[in-house]
Amino acid sequence: MPLPRPAIVGLTSLLVVAGAGLPAAASSAPPDNEPPGIFGLDGILICAGERFDPLSGVSVFDDYDGWDLPLVTAEEWDAGFPGVHDEPEITVSLTTPPPARQTVANFGRVRYAARDLDGAVTHADRWIGVENCTDRPQLSTRFFLSNTWGPTATHTFIWGGYEDQALVGDWDGDWIDTIAVRQGSAFHVPEGHGSEAKRTIYYGRPGDVVLRGDWDGDGVDTLAVRRGNAYHLKNTIAGGPADKVVHYGKADDAVYVGDWDGDGVDTLAVRRGNAYHVRNTLTSGVADQVAYYGRAADVTLVGDWDGDGRETFAVRRSNTYYVKNAIASGVADTVSVYGRACDAVLVGDWDADGLDTLAVRR
Ligand SMILES: [Ca+2]
Ligand SMILES: [Ca+2]
Ligand SMILES: [Ca+2]
Ligand SMILES: [Ca+2]
Q1: pTM of the shown model
Q2: End-to-end alpha-carbon separation of the chain, Å?
Q3: pLDDT exceeds cutoff 80 at 4
Q4: What are phi and psi of 75, to 5 degrees?
Q5: Residue 349 in this model has a pLDDT that exceeds 80
Q6: What is the CA(327)–ligand 3 centre distance, in A?
Q7: What's the CA gap between 198 and 190, in Å, rounded?
Q8: Which residues pair with 296 in a beta bridge?
Q9: What does the pLDDT look like over 64-116, one tens digit per residue?
Q10: Distances (CA, A) of 45 to 142, 343, 358
Q11: Of 71, 214, 228, 230, which is least surrounded by CB within 10 A?
């Protein structure tokens, strides 16, 4: 009796990202040439100018017995792919490599093949596109939280909507940062990583710039609305009028929130070019400290990277992070490569060990 044809799931949603000049129609796999039994290649994300390894981030699952199937590795690819794994039931290989290990100009097609035990081969074509992520990272509803700078995500979940603003905070004072999502003036605050249970609060107007911080040092993060250079701070997770209004910097300054001096209270810093004007009290006035770090074009992150209770800056260039552990000018203390150039990242202490690490929204 022949074995039932195993189906491969996990190839369903090769993530196709619209880029400049990419027709919208190319962002979905052609429905008619999807053979039965092969689904899923999720998580492929290609950045403009990035070398594309078609097997990076791909997982394939065999719904015949539920085993996760390994694909060929990048090393095998380099050694003269296509190679085929001797898997007990199915082998999956990429047979047509047009965009492989190349800079993808716009979009293209890759072909995957699956062969089951009796030698039958089925193919699946998938269109891929290229995202221009230099302006704004592609947002997603999938979050990958990591407690280290290593490649392993400790929490993976789907949460919120694609365009929702994500706000990281310790909303209940348990020292664990979680990710709230904003929809207009509604903020959905989860009970834990990936938890469906949530509180919804309403604050500000839909177009407001909203920041989060622990403005009173009680260990609980709350919200603030920015209007120009006025910051309307609220010390409880609730709607209603602000508890305090602080004016700082100029209306067009980039602003960052952090506990720069380790006193438990978050305050503001504004950035002009690569100059960071840091203030340690929630009052109007001039900066307590000015530090020059990185380049004007860098993306800036705030975190307590070394667990000393003080938050400092890191700058990001593509997927390289230059971390500084003091509010000071000078070279980075650590340099780490993490994730991909198109990733949207968030910073938080996901495990309450005092160290901030990254989460990828991909
Ligand atoms: Ca607070
Ligand atoms: Ca402080
Ligand atoms: Ca620190
Ligand atoms: Ca941590």
Answers
A1: 0.68
A2: 44
A3: no
A4: -65, -40
A5: yes
A6: 9
A7: 4
A8: none
A9: 444 444 444 434 434 433 333 333 334 444 433 333 333 333 444 555 555 55
A10: 13, 9, 19
A11: 228
Residue 284's identity, in one-letter code, is S
Alpha-carbon gap, residue 202 to 210, rounded angstroms: 12
Mean pLDDT throughout 28-48? 36
* Per-residue model confidence (pLDDT) at position 113: 56
Using a CB cutoff of 8 Å and minimum separation of 24, what contacts does 178-183 make?
Answer: 178/348, 179/143, 179/346, 179/348, 179/359, 180/212, 182/210
Q: What ligand has the least distance to the C-alpha of 282?
A: 2
> Which tokens belong to 254?
């980039």
Give yes or no for residue 308 having a pLDDT over 50.
Answer: yes
User: What's the CA-to-centroid distance between 219 and ligand 4, angstroms?
Assistant: 16
Give yes or no for residue 176 having a pLDDT over 80.
yes
User: Which residues, including other chains, have CB under 8 Å from residue 72's CB and lie 6 or more apart?
Assistant: 55, 81, 82, 83, 84, 85, 93, 94
Place of tokens 């938050």: 311
Structure tokens at 226: 């920015």
How far out from the chain centre does Cα 192 lie? Answer: 18
Question: Residue 233 CA: which ligand is closest?
Answer: 1
Give the integer Cα–Cα distance in Å for 182 and 172: 17
Question: Whole-angstrom Cα distance, residue 329 to residue 73?
Answer: 42
Which pair of structure tokens corresponds to residue 261?
A: 């001096």
Q: Is the pLDDT of residue 156 over 80?
A: yes
